[in-house]
Amino acid sequence: MERLLVLVRHGQSEWNLKNLFTGWKNPDLTEQGVKEARTAGQTLKEMKLEFDEAFTSDLLRAQKTLDLMQEEMGTDLPITRDQALNERDYGDLTGMNKDEARKQFGEEQVHIWRRSFDVPPPGGESLKMTAERVLPYFDTEILPRVLAGKRILVSAHGNSLRALIMQLEGLTPEQILKRELGTGTPIIYRLDEEGGIVEKIDLAE
User: Cα-flanking dihedrals φ and ψ of residue 161, to 5°?
Assistant: First the structure.
């Protein structure tokens, strides 16, 4: 029985390109983001990976990335969309240029908001709060399917995926905060019957 879980961060969005805090806003993919999503689909097809179901967030950039990957793979998977997989909510920082935020609030304060585990920006979520939203959904909706032998593809966001990776790989908050996830780059896990990692292939490495 194959227990396959593949995580993909969405391709570059228009707000990634503009260096804006995006959170729950809904910018589309850039041309580069479209290419990244198609390349991810081509790569998975070339690796002869097959899937039974897909999960994505409630946001356009993750959904479109999944659609483009499916076009390249020639698949039409059942898709579950849920805001539990949404990006971290950046609150009052949403829509602000990251350099402008540093000028307004100070380099150190913005760094704390972005890179601490449990300090949220004003009106927003910390990574800890994001994990508290993402992980119960993963544990009840996605992981049981994988353990039952379903091959699952997840298209989501940098911080929602960090929460999953932290649990899957048993990382500390300090370790996960240092993990960079490239846009449109699949991370492939094969799991044992208890959810332990048998094999991990990170195509960004």
Answer: -70, -35
- Provide the Cα torsion 25, 127, 145, 53; round to 10°: 30
β-strand pairing of 197-202 with 186-191: antiparallel
Which DSSP string corresponds to 88-119?
PP-GGGTT-BHHHHHHHH-HHHHHHHHH-SS-
The per-residue pLDDT for range 21-32, each reduced to its tens digit, is 999 999 999 999
Instruction: Mark whether 87 is an active-site residue.
Output: yes
Euclidean distance between CA atoms 119 and 108, whole angstroms: 13
Tokens of 157: 């966001």
Q: SS3 string of 26-60?
A: CCCECHHHHHHHHHHHHHHHHCCCCCCEEEECCCH
Active site residue 2: no
Which tokens is 50 given?
Answer: 């097959």
Asked if pLDDT for residue 120 goes beyond 90, the answer is yes
Catalytic-labelled residue, pool 10, 36, 125, 157: 10
Pick the CATH number of 4-202 from 3.30.565.10, 3.40.50.1240, 1.10.10.10, 3.30.465.10: 3.40.50.1240
CB half-sphere exposure, 198, CA atoms < 13 A: 12
Q: Which of 31, 46, 50, 87 is catalytic?
A: 87
pTM of this prediction exceeds 0.90: yes
Name 20's Cβ contacts closer than 8 Å, sequence gap at least 6: 95, 96, 97, 98
